[in-house]
Design goal:
2 strands, elongated, about 5% strand, 6 helices, two-stranded antiparallel sheet, about 150 residues
Length: about 150
């Protein structure tokens, strides 16, 4: 079984984590975020626009502009970041029928997949960007990389 993020969600998470690591009054340019996070610079403006539209980041245009988080990293969930670029996380396509289960009744695996989906959404909603940063710093320290 593969559970993978799309490139857009991956880039959005990395961009938000980079902004969370910046100084509180610092704004980061798209180019800097892209370079620091290994994100192709041509894709990042649209991702940042989606994050801004969702109220997760604030952008100031111009040479001295850039982006910063719109609220503290501890108040931004991983689910919000993913949904900002991907839309609603609730699966509406039946894994057995290719369409909504409600059209022809509930399929045999509906309850299992629905419960799994709800559990994943709950976990993503509970994980904040601040929590991710803390876990990353712990892992880096444990590996002797500092942090």
């Amino acid at each position: 079984m593969r559970l993978e993020l799309t490139k857009r969600a991956d880039y959005a998470i990395r961009a938000v984590v980079a902004l969370a690591a910046a100084a509180p009054d610092e704004r980061l340019s798209v180019r800097r975020i892209a370079a620091d996070q290994g994100i192709p610079v041509r894709f990042l403006p649209q991702v940042m626009s989606d994050l801004g539209g969702a109220g997760l980041v604030e952008g100031i245009p111009g040479r001295t502009g850039g982006y910063r988080l719109a609220r503290p990293a501890g108040r931004i969930s991983l689910l919000e970041v993913i949904e900002a670029v991907e839309g609603d996380s609730h699966r509406e396509t039946c894994v057995m029928r290719g369409g909504p289960c409600q059209l022809n009744g509930v399929c045999d695996v509906h309850r299992v997949f629905a419960a799994t989906q709800e559990g994943m959404i709950r976990q993503l909603g509970a994980a904040t960007i601040a929590t991710l940063r803390k876990e990353d710093r712990k892992a880096s320290s444990a590996a002797g990389l500092g942090g």
